[in-house]
Amino acid sequence: MKIELKNITIKSLTDGFADNDEQGVVAYSGKLDIRPPYQREFVYGDKERNAVIDSVRKNFPLNVMYWAVRDDGTYEVIDGQQRTLSICQFVADDFSMDWNGHQLSFNNLQDDQQKQILDYKVMVYFCIGTSSEKLDWFRTINIAGKEHTPQELRNAVYAGPWTADAKRYFSKTGCAASKLGSDYVSGSPIRQELLETVIDWIKDTKTIDEYMGIHQRDKNASPLWHYFQSVIGWVKATFPNYRREMKGIDWGFYYNEFKGKTFDTDKLEKQIAALMMDDDVTKKSGIYAYLLTGEEKRLNIRAFTANQKREAYERQKGICPKCKEHFPLSEMEADHIKPWREGGKTEAKNCQMLCKNDNRTKGGK
């Protein structure tokens, strides 16, 4: 890849700036593609965005940016998207910021202040190379600002029609997937965490990378969107009474395993309500996994205290009630006399000390 350093004034950079959402974001007289397919969404917060403008107005240097030169003579941002958007949005009066104690937009500035900003020069490396070289450069250069998430880098590597369409559903604030499933799925759409989660659910490959590689040239990501709709629909039908503990559960994995099973939703609701009120259940979000899988470990049942263990040990005189052998306290473990699943509580009178071997081989553990 050939690289040439140039200085570009902000006046030139922001000329022709237009944010057409899905149709693209351009500047530099329409010749600069600020958000090519492999780029992420705008993720700077007010603090970071304002810091860019503050550096400009104080004539502090910004980190160098990288543009790829296309065959048709236009350009695309490899690195510097967040800084470029911050500058263009400010000059376009899209936001205001504190300026010596006053909240001012670009239009509110004095002529000399506007001129100082427009005359400011950003350093840009113009990079000439193949598409694969551009993507490799994008992955390996030292990118200033917020670190890219793993999924943002995957979007770059597997840029294509499938990724572009998947981002339309899963990768914007207020996107269709967020509107449908934000109560059930954690993760930021604009940082690609929502997209990453859903691909991880649906994938029939070992890794997310493999799945994206297989589908990179697909014309659209409709199957992924339909799958997500099915997952959320199944969750709502199976557990119709929403609780905040339902957010962040890996619902896709449970949908994949149990979508063909019929559940008594009224019975499930009664069990959920009872488990929510059970003080021994310390992980309330695990209730849903427990009811689906029957795995008690999902609940993180409250453990006996050190005093309760000592009391039971002294009461038993160090004798394991199963094998009738004597053990030091350090070689024994606490166990519910009446199992928790049968209504036994985590309290002193229901505690017994078993040797490690008997406790770990006890039926139902």
List keywords for this structure.
365 residues; alpha+beta; 4 domains; seven-stranded mixed β-sheet; two-stranded antiparallel ribbon; elongated
What is the strand and helix layout of this fold?
Blueprint: E1 2-9, H1 10-14, E2 18-19, E3 25-27, E4 32-33, H2 46-57, E5 65-69, E6 75-79, H3 81-91, E7 97-99, E8 102-104, H4 111-119, E9 121-128, H5 131-140, H6 150-157, H7 161-170, H8 176-181, H9 193-202, H10 208-215, H11 222-238, H12 251-258, H13 265-276, H14 286-293, H15 306-316, E10 332-336, E11 351-355, H16 356-361
Parallel strand pairs: 4-6, 5-9
Antiparallel strand pairs: 1-9, 2-3, 3-4, 5-6, 7-8, 10-11
Apparent shape: elongated
Number of strands: 11
Query: How do the strands of the widest beta sheet line up side by side?
Result: 1-9-5-6-4-3-2
The CA-CA distance between the termini, in Å, is: 61 Å
Task: List low-pLDDT spans.
Answer: none
Main sheet summary: 7 strands, mixed
Number of helices: 16
Q: Evaluate the radius of gyration.
A: 29 Å
Query: What is the N-to-C order of secondary-structure elements (H for helix, E for strand)?
Result: EHEEEHEEHEEHEHHHHHHHHHHHEEH
Query: What's the helical proportion of residues?
Result: 40-55%
Number of domains: 4
What class do helices, strands and sheet pairing give? alpha+beta
Q: What is the averaged pLDDT score?
A: 87
β-strand percent reads 5-15%
